[in-house]
Amino acid sequence: MEHSFRGLVVSAAFALIDETRAYEPRAEAAAFVLALRTRGIADLSLLRAMETVPRELFAPRRYADLARHDIALPLPCGETMTAPTVVAVMVRALGVGSGQRILEIGTGSGYVTALLCALGGDVDSIERRPVLADSAWQRIKAAGFSERCGMDCRDGFADDGRETRYDRILVNGALAEGTVPESLTSLLAAGGRLVAGNRDASGSVRLMTVLCASEGELAVSMGAPIRLPAIS
């Protein structure tokens, strides 16, 4: 009888450990979302997506423990994984709706790609660095979003002759002031929107939104300062 009792105690202890381990990621994800809310991110769909998509899956392994912090993380090839608040500001400005066709320039880690898919977008993502493209695609598949995403490894600003029109275009980086590539704006559907960073002569970066009117005219507006690396 004593033997059985000890067995039950041990089993209960292991069950408690398993439950605690399962609880920790949920608690960390909840704290992550709460921190975003305190920084002014109030879009519930976006917050839900950022809680659901595990940023630690997309971060380099050595920085996985920092993935739920609001900081940029280094990636191979001298690139960076943009801080979550900046990602949230850009994705919110993009205004993703279910079923929209989205072109993403600069896949990076694949985290933003997964967020766009989680929000219901059908994403074509372009990354020019093969090392990043391969790694991002593996992570996107592991996160379960490969069916909503297509990927290409090439220069995203080069005109490849495609005739697809996109509802949304996201550029993950800062363009030089006054240089919105026609190779991208020509891909905007009527009523479409492009979001990117815009770097002025002093090096400061602000959020830039380009709207495509039904007749094809473009309207450019500038938003708040954000921290984004320049596109080299």
UniProtKB/TrEMBL annotation:
Work out whether the entry's keyword set contains Transferase. Answer: yes
Any one GO biological process: methylation
The superkingdom of the source organism is Bacteria
Cross-referenced Pfam families, in alphabetical order?
PCMT
Give the record's keywords alphabetically: Methyltransferase, Transferase
The GO cellular component terms are: cytoplasm
Write out the GO MF terms. Answer: protein-L-isoaspartate (D-aspartate) O-methyltransferase activity
Q: Kindly indicate whether the keyword Magnesium belongs to this entry.
A: no
Name of the protein: Protein-L-isoaspartate O-methyltransferase
In its UniProt entry, the species of origin is given as Enterovirga rhinocerotis
